[in-house]
Design a protein that fits this description.
8-stranded mixed β-sheet, 6-stranded mixed β-sheet, binds zinc ion, 553 residues, 27 strands, alpha/beta, 15 helices, globular
């Protein structure tokens, strides 16, 4: 249909992370966010997970650009990978662009894009797209909801948001504007953040954390305080710095991204810490502990982060111990609990006191909870609804909530990664699907496939057995070996008998093969693999990876 609008979901619908959607109008494409995901525990050795960009690469010439809703890594972190393949402009608030710029610059790809700042409330055209940027409150400042004015009516995308009535910067989610759009034009379709769709009630205001921090700083007067939070959570950083200054402390930053973001946000006037209250981290040791606050990265227990190194006693710039208080001002993102626990344990072992979100309200969420989601639904009154940004359970609960709020059940779509939906006069329907699997990154390129991960899992859980044997090319007779090398199956020095028996089985299997006249490598390898596999399974009930190496002489 000529005037129809298509939405292609490349990530974020079925997982928390790698948010990436594409809006299509008049044959042109506008990307909405381009994020990464941090690997789950079973993704061994994987550093990052990206959306599959196959479809975007194939349609590169139709791409007008990428609009960023806010500066979190799960919305901007994959740009430095996509820009290697496709060159396009990036639109976002000045802060969002400043945060997104880091990785792009590190990858040496700044010349592949143009960073175009957009302002709160601005309405502008990008190609055929007529969009309006609506302020929302979130755990990073200057986020947007986006209204797309299309021939099929207004499509509103919430971005990551909460309804904080007393945000630190006073910049509230502009519900009034959303209501005005709904009254004036009607909102044909709403796509909304589902992260907290299972959480009853209303998220606490970010300001509540400020009060808790001030109390904690007062309660620990005389002690050195280290506070860890996300380096992008500038309002949290502001409140930590305010609490520090109110208790007569100077502030030092620790961790590269913390130093970078604090400098950026101060320059932009978003973060207010006077020069005289800042001190270099290397000067901290010489100061009275009760006059110091260190704001650090590593609130997710990331193994190489400033906080994790501190907990391991390996941070060269700051050693913590008896008399120090560490405040972890964050919740562990699912998958990071293990790392965070390890850090907390390490800090206690060093003699430090630890205050985390399980002990005090040192963190509030940046995502709307059920009452807030209901408020947005009631203000926007959308004809169609698609829950976005969440695991399938979150999407499911958000879909049900929309129906409870009066959206017709036929008009609520549970879309997933890879789905293409079309909005037309007829309504909304699924029309296509595109590749949207996980793209694993280990090192700097996205080239770790499912096969590699499967191998890593077998190696990690079962170990490996390598069988090396040399055979006569004509007769198939064994000339040297078999030699059996194993890692992670049995500890070789203590399993001589077992290995001797395995060697015997390999010899027998090769003799059998020779009798059958088989001399080609593939057949011999198969015999070796089967013989060893059966033996290992019989004797040890395990399934290690078996690598037969058959050489001919
Ligand atoms: Zn976010
Ligand atoms: Zn997000």
């Amino acid at each position: 249909m000529a005037d129809s609008i298509r939405l292609t979901f490349l990530g974020g619908l079925g997982e928390i992370g790698r948010n990436c959607a594409c809006v299509e109008q008049d044959g042109r494409l506008l990307l909405l966010d381009c994020g990464l995901m941090f690997p789950e525990v079973d993704m061994l050795g994987v550093d990052l997970v990206l959306p599959d960009f196959t479809w975007l690469r194939e349609n590169a010439e139709r791409l007008e650009g990428c609009l960023l809703t806010h500066g979190h890594e799960d919305h901007v972190g994959a740009l430095s990978f996509l820009l290697r393949d496709i060159s396009f402009p990036i639109y976002g608030s000045p802060l969002t662009l400043g945060l997104a710029r880091n990785r792009i610059e590190e990858a040496g790809l700044l010349d592949r894009t143009r960073l175009v700042p957009v302002e709160d409330g601005e309405r502008r055209n990008i190609g055929p797209f007529d969009i309006e940027l609506i302020p929302v409150t979130h755990s990073v400042p200057h986020g947007f909801a986006t209204a797309f004015y299309t021939p099929q009516g207004v499509i509103l995308h919430s971005g990551d948001f909460k309804l904080d009535l007393t945000p630190v910067d006073g910049r509230t989610t502009d519900l009034a504007r959303i209501g005005a759009i709904a009254d004036e034009h009607g909102i044909r379709m709403l796509l909304s953040d589902s992260t907290n769709a299972e959480e009853a009630g209303h998220a606490a205001s970010e300001r509540a954390v400020g009060r808790v921090l001030r109390d904690l700083f007062a309660a620990h007067a005389g002690k050195r305080i280290v506070a860890a939070c996300f380096a992008s959570h500038l309002h949290r950083i502001q409140q930590i710095a305010d609490a520090a200054r109110a208790s007569g402390r100077v502030v030092a930053t620790l961790g590269r991204s913390m130093a970078k973001n604090v400098a950026l946000a101060r320059e932009m006037g978003i973060l207010h810490i006077p020069e005289e209250s800042l001190v270099d981290i290397d000067k901290v040791d010489g100061l009275d502990p009760g006059r110091v606050c260190v704001i650090s990265t590593g609130s997710q227990g990331e193994p190489m982060s400033a906080l994790a190194l501190m907990a391991a006693g390996e941070n060269k710039r700051l050693r913590v111990g008896e008399g120090d208080v560490v405040i972890i001002s964050a919740h562990a993102i699912p998958g990071n609990e293990y790392d965070v626990n390890k850090v907390i344990d390490g800090l206690y072992r060093l003699g430090a006191e630890v205050v985390h979100s399980g002990l005090a309200d040192v963190h509030v969420t940046g995502h709307a909870m059920r009452e807030e989601l209901k408020t947005l639904l009631s203000v926007a009154k959308p004809e169609f609804f698609i829950p976005v940004h969440g695991e399938f359970r979150h999407l499911t609960h958000h879909a049900r909530l929309a129906m409870e709020m009066g959206v017709a059940s036929d008009n609520v779509l549970l879309a997933e990664d890879g789905d293409v939906v079309e909005l037309s006069e007829k309504g909304v329907e699924f029309v296509d699907s595109v590749p949207a699997g996980f793209l694993y990154v280990d090192g700097i390129v996205g080239d770790v496939g499912h096969g590699v991960l499967r191998d890593r899992k077998v190696l990690a859980e079962e170990g490996v057995i390598v069988v090396v044997v040399t055979v006569d090319a004509q007769s198939g007779e064994v000339l040297t070996g078999p030699e059996i090398i194993t890692r992670g199956w049995v500890y070789a020095p203590e399993a001589e008998d077992l290995l001797a028996e395995a060697r015997q089985r390999v010899l027998e299997s090769l003799e059998e093969a020779a009798e059958e006249g088989a001399t080609d490598f593939e057949t011999l390898k198969r015999h070796v693999r089967q013989a060893v596999g059966r033996f290992v399974s019989e004797r040890t009930k395990r399934r290690p990876m078996i690598v037969p190496v058959v050489m001919e002489a």
